[in-house]
Design brief:
The chain is built from nine helices and ten strands. The protein is an alpha/beta fold and 307 residues long. α4 packs parallel to α5.
Length: 307
Amino acid sequence: NWYQLIMKILTDMNTQVRDRLIKTFIVDANMLAWPKQEAMRDQYHCNIPWAILLDPTSACNLRCTGCWAAEYGHKQNLTYEEIDSIINQGVKLGPHVYIYTGGEPLVRKHDLINLCEAHPDCAFLSFTNATLIDEEFVQDMIRVANFVPAISVEGFEEATDSRRGNGTYQKVVHSMNLLKSHRLPFGISTCYTSANIKDVSTEAYLDQLVEWGAYFVWYFHYMPVGKDAVPELLPSPEQREYMYHQIRELRGKKPIFMLDFQNDGEYVGGCIAGGRRYLHINANGDCDPCVFIHYSDSNIRQKTLLE
């Protein structure tokens, strides 16, 4: 299955995008950046992350059950200049991977593309509901060649629409078909809950992701964050243990790169948060140790990234 995935990257992916991503993600963001990050840790006696997560906006065009994004309203934004400054400061310290969360990042898709152009030595990934991906944006992705979407899909049509709204599933499938037709790389972000866990852990589900054209799938278990959270969606300990074993079994079978955000902590010495391997900055500029832990004592508008 690993051979099949590698051959898919080498033969199926748009060559312009493939070559740029190999340079930015493999060379710039890892081979060259990792030693610099280690040196900066030693120099400044603090954690330097591998990736920096940013919320360009709190706005979103969907209202998904249990999502905290809507609690922050739709008016918070990091300006283009603020995001550009964060990236400039980050590159000097070593991080060359920037991941957009939200809100729905593609509400600001023109700014995101301009940032890709301004920082060709960085790799950009965006968690997105994919409903705002269109032909114009696809052409922009081809042009900059260093932007990869991670599309939210939470099972087949009934499971996805029940949490994200009727009709969302078909819009997402349309976007994936559009990306695949242009041979562009993308992945899947799947939040598994007590309700959909059986849908998203089957071989049929993984086969469908591969058929859609996804190169990776990133699993998260539902986190009941915020006052409007739905604790009933939190997987039970037994369900979480089941996913631990199921994902590892499927990894050995399917030609798709699979990550389990919580359960793969064992491979990186525990949780990757806490500022060790990533840092999160929300749309208000607040810096927190993890996208799931909404505590901050610092704001990027008052402090430098190093501070």
